[in-house]
Amino acid sequence: MKVLLITTVNVFFKERAGTFFVLLAILFGFMSGTEHHAIATFFLGSWSGMGALFWVWFGYTAFCGQFVFQLWARPTYRFLYEARLWSKLLRLRRFTLLAIGLLQPILWYGVYLFSIAFIDQLFPLLWLIPVYFILLILLLVYLFSWRINHPRFFVNKKKKIGFKYSLPRPNSSTYWSLEYLVREKTVTVLLSKLGSFLVINAIIQYYSAPEFDLRMPALGVTLAYLFNLGLSYELYRWETEFWLWGRSLPISVVKRFQMLVLGHALLILPETFIFLKDSDLQWLEIASLYLLGLSGNMLFYAWVFVSGKQLEDSIPQVLVTFVVFTLAVLYKVPVLLIGVLLLALSARWYIRGFQKKASNG
């Protein structure tokens, strides 16, 4: 089952990453939380709205089915046709899990619609959402079963292109690190950014009053930025497990830390743009929150780099740090000062840890 999910679901999100990034940019870069709420209200408020929702979801399901048809036709996927030896019940259970994996965007949007329905008391047509989801799952299960029972293979032929031009790749380790995330950890990037965007939009909706204290949105924005801890951990793995020859380059440890700061700064920039576009905060306040999110992710990176712990083993330290940070904010410690101190602490940890590892060989 794990092989089936990795070779289908992961490949789907990886090869269609560009499409999902464009959708995320449109949904959260150009549309505000008010517009999202209005669209959800339209879907939940009438039969025509629920009909439109069904056709949108059906279109996405057809998109998934067409991709799987082409993917399983590749010669490298011949092993999947051994699934014909499974019993009908086992095939139904595993194909159902596979369909749920592909329909994750629909699932999470359905959860969002449920939350809007409970807030606005729009219950009459809410029962259609789980019905739609079950029907689309069954449709994908039928398509998977049909493909398994009707195998088809092909070999792609290279087509000659009359004119071909490719842009030179930048000579930058920061670019290579971010490229690694987009190419190899696409699902992690999509889920991290989706969660972060949703929290940012919720913060903007909640703190839409003309006057409020910066301390409260600081806690919410920090929580949104913490969705990038998984990406920060993948950058750590990239540096320590895959890009090993980078340690032998004649680059000072301070320069290495600066490149890491630049990579993390670019990593959390999309959420900051959304907050900048829709919130009523001043530039200095947004810069303080941005520095706070950057320093938090850098502190986590430095901690993992020094301790060598796995991501799941570092969760208790992250929770304790967030509690301490919450107390500091509530006791009116300036947000900008907290960000500067955390960034300085992360620099000290990383530089001392790198020098210690270099001296140990």
Overview of this protein structure:
With 361 residues, this protein is an all-alpha fold. It is 75% helix and 0% strand. It is built from 16 helices and no strands. Helix 3 crosses helix 4 and helix 10 crosses helix 14. The longest helix has 26 residues. The model has no long low-confidence stretch (mean pLDDT 78).
Short description:
Helices cover 75% and strands 0% of the residues.
List keywords for this structure.
361 residues; mainly alpha; 16 helices; globular
The helix content is over 70%
Radius of gyration: 24 Å
Ends: how far apart?
Answer: 41 Å
Shape: globular
Portion in strands: under 5%
* H and E string: HHHHHHHHHHHHHHHH
Quaternary form: single chain
Give the total of beta strands: 0
Layout of helices and strands, plus pairs?
Blueprint: H1 2-15, H2 17-30, H3 33-45, H4 47-72, H5 88-102, H6 104-120, H7 128-149, H8 173-184, H9 186-206, H10 215-225, H11 229-242, H12 253-267, H13 269-278, H14 283-307, H15 315-330, H16 335-359
